[in-house]
Amino acid sequence: MSLSLTEAQALTALRSFLTAILPTDVVVIRGQANRTPEPKAVNFVVITPLFRERLSTNVDNYIDAVFTGSIAGNVLTITAVGYGSLVVGSQILGVNVAANTLVLAINSGSGGIGTYTLNNSQTVNSQKLAAGVMTLLQAVKMTVQMDSHGPASADNAHLITTLFRDAVGVVLFKISGFEVAPLYTTDPKQIPFINGELQVENRWTVDAVMQCNPLITLSQDFADQLSILLQPVPIP
């Protein structure tokens, strides 16, 4: 089983957006880190995840594949494809293939002819192989609190709320490479922060709401053909 988008990756996409739009001297860190002091930077932003709300019912999809390939070590080499394609998480089935052999990474190709990294090391001669997966998509609305600290915190909060809800923000999230898209933000709110020296610091808080599309991949067995056997029924 694999998850295509983790919380850390979603926050990485948000951080890449923030570092792209804020002045270069602004440091962006994750909140709730024990035994970690404030950054030495005068202005910084702390991001803390708050909510993960379901946006829709699950979307299930099934992917079957039949191909010709061989395995040497932990590398699968596909030379011909009957139908379907491989994805990360596909379970490889065939004669003398070790149980629970899964695709960990795509080295070359795009699910067809090419090489793939497996979780099991083994030797399998070229033969007809099969693979199948089930994917489950649950789109979620992820809310992240962003605390902008420092003398320029109000200006930085304004930059965030303006560009997050603009096409600029959509493009910057797309560049991150993760299945995350900006939706909207709350209006900035000024909440003073009392530091460890009991001094008051400027802090403006904004909640950013993003859509995340994590995909769960499970191995799935498929029947390529069925054999029907007739059984005589005794007549009393």
Summarize the structure in words.
The protein is α+β, with helices and mostly antiparallel strands and 236 residues long. The chain folds into two domains: 2-57 and 138-218, STM4215-like; 62-134. It contains three helices and 14 strands. The protein has helices spanning 7-21, 153-164, 167-175; strands at residues 2-3, 27-30, 44-54, 59-83, 91-93, 103-106, 114-137, 140-149, 180-185, 189-190, 193-194, 200-201, 203-212, 215-219. The strands form three sheets. Strands 1, 4, 5, 6, 7 and 14 form a six-stranded antiparallel sheet that branches. The model has no long low-confidence stretch (mean pLDDT 92).
Could you give a short description of this structure?
The chain has 236 residues and is α+β, with helices and mostly antiparallel strands.
CA-atom Rg in angstroms: 25 Å
Provide the CATH topology of the largest domain.
STM4215-like
- Order of H and E elements: EHEEEEEEEHHEEEEEE
Give the beta-strand count. 14
Total count of domains: 2
CATH structural class of the largest domain: Alpha Beta
Oligomer: single chain
Mean pLDDT figure: 92
Distance between the termini: 51 Å
Q: Which structural category fits the helices and strands?
A: alpha+beta
Helix count? 3
CATH architecture descriptor text of the largest domain: 2-Layer Sandwich
Shape descriptor = elongated
Q: What level of helicity do the residues show?
A: 10-25%
Determine the CATH superfamily of the largest domain: Phage tail protein-like
Strand content: over 45%
